[in-house]
Hints:
- This protein is mainly α.
- The chain folds into three domains: 2-130, Nucleotidyltransferase, domain 5, CATH 3.30.420; 135-247, Helix Hairpins (Orthogonal Bundle); 287-374, Orthogonal Bundle (Serum Albumin, Chain A, Domain 1).
- It is built from 20 helices and five strands.
- The chain has helices at 31-39, 45-56, 67-75, 87-92, 94-100, 107-130, 133-163, 169-172, 176-186, 194-198, 204-215, 224-258, 260-266, 268-278, 281-286, 289-294, 298-307, 321-324, 328-351, 357-373, and strands at 2-7, 11-15, 21-26, 61-64, 80-82.
- Strands 3-2-1-4-5 form a five-stranded mixed β-sheet, with helices on one face.
- Strand 2 (11-15) and strand 3 form a beta hairpin.
- Helix 1 (31-39) crosses helix 6.
- The longest helix has 35 residues, at 224-258.
- It is elongated and about 105 Å long.
- The relative contact order is 0.06.
Amino acid sequence: MKAKLFFCEAGLALLDENNEPIASARFQDDLYRKYKSLTVGLPVEELDMILGEATRRNVEELQVPYPELAAMAEEKGLRVVARPEEREALEGVKDTIMVKAGLAYSMEEVLDIIREVSIKEGEERIREAAAHPDLQIVQSINAVDELDKISNIMATRVREWYGLHFPELDGLVQDPMAYCRIVQDLGLRQNFTSERLAATGFSEAKVNAIVEASSRSKGGELREEDVEALQLLAREAVSTGKLRDRMLRHVERNMAKLCPNLTAMAGAGIGARLIARAGSLKRLSEMPASTVQVLGAEKALFRALRTGGRPPKHGIIFQHPLVHSAPLWQRGKIARLLGSKLALAARTDYHSGKLNRALLDKMNEKIEEIRRKYPEPRPGRAREGPKKTFEKGRGAFGRRKGFGGRGMDEGRSGRRR
């Protein structure tokens, strides 16, 4: 006799040629675990039971619509015929077969079983997705950018506040964190001595310049409570800056493990920001090179599409030294090349995760070729700036002049007031 193997969330069954149940084996416990095991080709005791029943009934040909179960059925010595085309037909009458085979006692129970298994499958997929390393990288690089913004805001406030007391220091110390460390450690300008400033790591010439400026400063005096508050703010700015540096090192370690090719080409920071902008490494690997090139410049791109202006040549990748340090007439070509190579690197990282030095070598060769081929700008293009475009019927800011495209001083009738 011939039979079909039926598989669902509640168990398994043998069906005749008319899809009528011959035998069944209901999952006794943990429906989702057993259902999931069978979907990935792992045996469960109920499958052994139903295949043993097929052997006892002398089934000459077992039709199996599920490829993941066919190999396990063949191991039991049964003659298996794969029929994947029948899977969809069985899915259409699954609820009826489940009730007839005794895998469920009513249609309501069928729905309850399917709902329970579907919910658990969704929860497992969410857990797997949330634990993926590239999502950890997304959160880490976002934290780096936020901490960077916070520390810069606090450092700016320290500089402006302390500038009331020692305005000359602003021009002598450019580094925000170094400025905050001076305020944190020394406080009032009267405490600026050569010995104490030397401990902060400045050169002798810089120390002498700061000491001289402090002695003839035209800034006002600060009260003790103001100095304490200012030093507390400076301390928080320095602490936030250090935390930002630690988070960046964390990003660099994870990027080196997960995305070695992106890291080698663009650096950990740019690579992580590309992943964050795309949403995940998988999404980035599926993007075309032209999208990777302008990723992060979406506003400029849509503005160009809306107004007919020039589209942006680069987005996040502008931070790459090869792009922002290149001459203006080479930037577009280098950005296009870098976008294509980064798209390829993302695909390589997603599918293999192994470093391919050939990608980096080829990119460097192409960069040198661009530099040799275009050493000078084309005539008339050296100082060309962005082209201003005006849509017909619109003003310089993309808004219509008035009602129905008429002038601002015209009424609805079109006559001047």
